[in-house]
Fold this sequence. Notes:
The protein has nine helices and ten strands. It is an alpha/beta fold. The strands form two sheets. It has a six-stranded mixed β-sheet, with helices on both faces. It has a four-stranded antiparallel β-sheet with strand order 2-1-4-5, covered by helices on one side. The two termini are 35 Å apart.
Amino acid sequence: MMLELRNITVRFGEITALDGLDLTVADGEEVAILGPSGCGKSTLLRVVAGLQKPNEGTVIWDGADIGAVPPHLRNVGLMFQNDALFPHLRVGENVGFGLRMAGWDREPARTRIAEMLTLVGLEGFASRRVDRLSGGEAQRVALARTLAPQPGLVMLDEPLGSLDRLLRDRLVIDIGEILEKTGIPSLYVTHDHDEAAAIAERIALMREGRIVQEGTFDQLRSNPADDWVADFVRS
């Protein structure tokens, strides 16, 4: 399966958040959307998720235009910087929330929850209260919840932005390994080039609503498209 964005344009009044943006994500590929704050990264994810309708352009999933498909039917998992866990639910109940909404039977759901908690390194945490979790543990639970319903695409919007540097450096490696194990294609939004380099096979560098260069981090550094790219990736 493949995601393809063609000529995506989003305007908010006189502000153009996305300006004729093109992007593809192949089956199993991990792509980082890198760029400064305000360049349109989060808007891009909202378009793919169906939360923002573009003024122009087409979102193609597995060869089909999904522009008219509502968000809950797009089979996309979206994880935000704020873990957004439900405080009244235990860890296992949080992870299984999407399964319950999708109508999974109790026993298969229980097995899936256990698998996801093991995958993110939280085996045995199902009955724990979420207010007893560290910041890193909460983000792992949020990732497990995102992956549990077996989405066709995972999107992560600055998932480590609220954590301190040491924890971010540790978790970004773990998240990269988890995404690689699942084989699910992913879009990882960040303004931090070290995160992008650690987690993605390919980086799409954004500026002012456009993707200005794509490649590995080494390629962006060694052969920048212009002075702005050179300054950004070397800062």
